What does this fold into?
Amino acid sequence: MFGRMSESTQPFDLVVIGGGSGGYAAARTAVAAGLRVAVIEGGEEVGGLCILRGCMPTKALLYAAEVLHLARRAETWGLRVEDANFNFARVMARKDAMIEEFADYRRKQLTAGKFEFIRSRASFVDPHTVALQDGRTITARHFILATGSRVAAPSLSGLAEVGFLTSDDALKLTRLPRSLVVLGGGAVAVELAQFFARFDVQVTLVQRSAHLLKDSDADAAAVVEKVFRREGVDLYTGTQLTDVRRLGNLKEVAFQHQGRTVRVAAEEILLALGREPNTDGLNLSLAGVATAGTRIITNDRMQTSVPHIYAVGDCTGPHEIVHIAIQQGENAVHNLLQPATPRTMDYRLLLSVVFTDPQVAQVGLTEQAARAAGVPYLAAQYPFDDHGKSLLMEARDGFVKLLADPATGEILGGACVGPMGGELIHEIVVAMQRRMTVAELAVVPHYHPTLAEIWTYPAEELAEQLKR
It folds into this structure.
């Protein structure tokens, strides 16, 4: 009735393949609804990308780098910190200890007995059956695939032969390289580039696009680029990588930049050109699940081409963000339980934060996205170098920006490039959730002096424009 099934195993209501944030959210939601659930996790470690190799370890290291950076600038505030330095082994040990706490908590959640937790790789035998490594088969009425992503394989000539670090490798280093070439200009690349630079590594960053953070507006990227150059990062944008070779004890990267060939040699290369869905080995074709390359195709209900199989998180996208993966997992369970009243994914409040210093945070539409979609808008911004609280903090880089509908004044998007941008952006998330106008935001009381009151200035400017 459900395809092949081992004689000793009754079909589960739901099998979740992958125990990261999206998979766990799905399993937890399904158990709460009374379903019989199994979670299959085939990774070497349990916890998921965010806890083990993503959000949490990188932010622990970035905060350490920020503290070191502030200590070295103590004279700015009339303070004296003699020879501010660091012990890299202790920095990494603190990170490891914290990640172990988070991972242990997730392991306890997965093994608490609310559902069956199986440590094995799984591959489809037919649309209702998966085979485990020990020869067992597991049958289910529904599946949710939450297998995450992995570092994309390098395509640059010579890179595999010369050797390189991935973001996973960077988080396991026991010593710092003296020099480093970072390939890429996305969130992972810029965050790790600044971390290494602030820990005294000579960093060169090589980006293919005309700006860093190509999904952000150019004015936001320009602030990060200015700060990076000020802090000693050698930055090349608008490049075309050509080859990599070994040069004595160093590794040399060659690329085209402004019509000439540039060669940069360093002790190590960090490959940060993106990740790809981790779907190899699932035998999705035997289940009839359609893919685009390695990415699992889903509709806005998180349903694959096979109605009883869903996919969530990095293995399907379109946005590789933890809170979205969790929402996708919860929605998938709702939809398999209540198909007559489905929940669809709405990315109107798409939120992103890059934890550089200054932080780059945005929600909703950017100007470039609005132009590409033909959405009319008004925009206004206000700089941190003319704002009381940020001046006190000596955090002068960046700005806040609001986009509004020119007919109704509804807030369409917001960006914050500056101190605590990842925290400040949530005020605009709340405003957009309630579909507030810029005039309504402008009259919300804000305490003085705070960073948050900076939002009132572009809101007031746009409200005045709309009046006229």
In short: The first helix runs from residue 21 to 32. The CA atoms of residues 203 and 209 lie 18 Å apart. The chain has 15 helices and 23 strands. The first strand starts at residue 12 and ends at 17.
